[in-house]
Amino acid sequence: MATAKTPQPAPSLPDEYLTPDDIALKFKVPKETVYYWHKKHTGPPGFRVGKHIRYDPTAVQAWVTQQSNLDSAA
Fold first, then answer.
1. Which of 4, 32, 64, 72 sits between 20 and 30 A of 40, alpha carbons compared?
2. Is the pTM of this model over 0.70?
């Protein structure tokens, strides 16, 4: 007998996602660098919304923390 799963509340979404321009400004790098990072999967994790790339601010902060930890371990 199958049991019905109780629906789980959706995780809360940020009020606003960051754009490649926002990332470029925050890290003081050219926007082309942000696109290169996205293409090579080396920068903050981004995702596509149609043809646009967006970044979750929480994921960007986690990426910065991870990079800081890698630098201090080296």
1. 72
2. yes
> Is 34 domain-assigned?
yes
pLDDT along the chain (74 residues), means of 10: 64 85 96 96 95 95 90 74
Q: Is residue 6 part of a domain?
A: no
- In the chain, how many domains are there? 1
CA distances from 45 to 12, 25, 31, 50 (A): 18, 16, 15, 16
Burial of 3 (0-12, 13-18, 19+ CB in 10 A): exposed
Q: 50: alpha, beta or left, given left = phi > 0 and alpha = psi -120 to 50?
A: left
